[in-house]
Specification:
- 25% of the residues lie in helices and 18% in strands.
- The chain is α/β, with parallel strands linked by helices.
- The strands form three sheets. Strands 1-8-7-2-3-5-4-6 form an eight-stranded mixed β-sheet, with helices on both faces.
């Protein structure tokens, strides 16, 4: 049932329909401008312009994206129309009507029209990304495969697909299909050579020191978070939960980074970005959505800068040679080091090597040797005894950095 996954999602509505010929783009989100033709493919000379940070740009998403400078933003989060192709109304078993997504901004004349629209906004999104920038796109089975194809055709490099598994999905009322309980996010870098931000260590700590997986269990947007008008109706039919954007931004941005949402809707991306100390730019043209977003954003209180400090990745830490542990007196020559569970052992030599049987070499070379491997991270493999327990020598490296003022 097409509605089952969509009542809970959050679509932004930042494009307008093109009229006339079938080959024209049918842009998303708002029906008021359906009679207007797409603006000429002319880009504002944006190099002389500064980024309009922390603002909602009113208008068509493609045309407003063209106004932003090349290579200027760190991340794009896009929640484009899903092109649900709904026909008729849907009712619950008690005959009450389901509040489905039937807005005109989600309707396209054909798959080819949708593909043209996707290519147009996505090409602009890629242009404004910095060389090491990345983009997230969310969708359902209705559109995510078409979106993924366009994304690769334009030169993006897919890093992960994330399954957002909804803890409280809408049932399939007719019983003709499986309950549609997930949506898919694609995380992609600008190119295959890009080095996008990924706060791996923070996300692992966030997940109780377990590597975070690509299936995320999160509830849909409901309760007090769901924005409603004076009549109690949803302001936006597909508002995304803030928890989803929280995880996305914590994983792939740093404080001060610029995040663009070309389908801003009621401002979920902006609200979370503001709270987490990121700069944001939203594009939207529906006045009711903009009004709700502005009120919402005015109530957001940013987290203090000191509380935004993320766990520093080990790879970025200053290098400390193993021999430095001897120089600082943290280890002595003759100390015995052990592998996990003390099945292997080696002795520390005064020159910063370690010896096992007749073989002598660095902690990495000897760690690989005793395991019969080609390579090994000796800092995590070898352990020393302290207080009757085996502890990784990486702890001593951390202490060395403290003593050298490198942490």
């Amino acid at each position: 049932m097409v509605q089952s996954c969509k009542v809970s999602s959050s679509k932004a509505s930042s494009s307008q329909k093109s009229s006339g010929k079938a080959s024209a783009l049918k842009k998303s989100k708002t029906s008021k401008l359906a009679s207007k033709k797409a603006a000429p493919n002319k880009r504002v000379a944006a190099s002389s312009k500064s980024l309009p940070s922390n603002k909602i740009l009113v208008g068509n998403c493609i045309e407003r994206l063209k106004e932003l400078p090349d290579n200027s933003v760190d991340l794009v989060f896009a929640d484009p129309p899903y092109n649900l192709q709904l026909e008729g109304e849907l009712h619950r078993p008690n005959n009450s009507k389901v509040d489905a997504v039937n807005d005109e901004w989600d309707q396209f004349d054909s798959f080819s029209a949708y593909d043209e629209f996707t290519k147009a906004w996505m090409a602009e999104a890629r242009r404004i990304l910095k060389p090491d920038g990345a983009m997230w796109v969310i969708g359902s089975y209705h559109n995510i495969f078409r979106v993924g194809t366009t994304l690769q055709d334009l030169g993006f490099w897919i890093l992960n697909d994330i399954i957002w598994r909804k803890s409280n999905p809408m049932p399939n009322f007719k019983g003709t299909r499986f309950c549609n309980a997930h949506e898919t996010l694609i995380w992609a870098s600008k190119t295959g050579k890009s080095r996008p931000t990924f706060n791996y260590d923070s996300m692992k700590a966030f997940n109780d020191d377990l590597q975070m997986r690509s299936d995320w269990l999160l509830p849909i947007c409901n309760g007090g978070e769901r924005l409603k008008d004076n009549l109690g109706k949803k302001v936006h039919p597909t508002q995304k939960p803030e928890g989803l954007l929280y995880r996305v931004l914590m994983a792939s941005t740093n404080p001060g980074d610029v995040v663009v949402d070309p389908f801003f809707g009621t401002g979920t991306t902006g609200a979370v970005a503001k709270a987490l100390g990121r700069q944001w730019i939203g594009i939207e043209q529906d006045k009711s959505y903009i009004e709700a977003a502005e009120i919402r954003l005015s109530k957001v209180r940013p987290v203090s800068p000191e509380d935004l400090q993320a766990l520093k990745p080990k790879r970025s830490a200053p290098r400390v040679p193993f021999g430095t542990l001897l120089e600082l007196g943290l280890l002595e020559a003759g100390t015995t080091l052990y592998g996990p569970r003390a099945k292997k052992s080696a002795e520390v030599r005064a020159d910063g090597t370690i010896q096992c049987a007749e073989q002598q070499g660095s902690i990495h070379k000897m760690g690989a040797y005793v395991q019969g491997l080609d390579a090994c991270n000796g800092w995590t493999y070898w352990h020393f005894k302290a207080d009757g327990e085996l502890k990784p020598i990486d702890l001593l490296r951390h202490e060395a950095r403290n003593q050298l003022g490198l942490n």
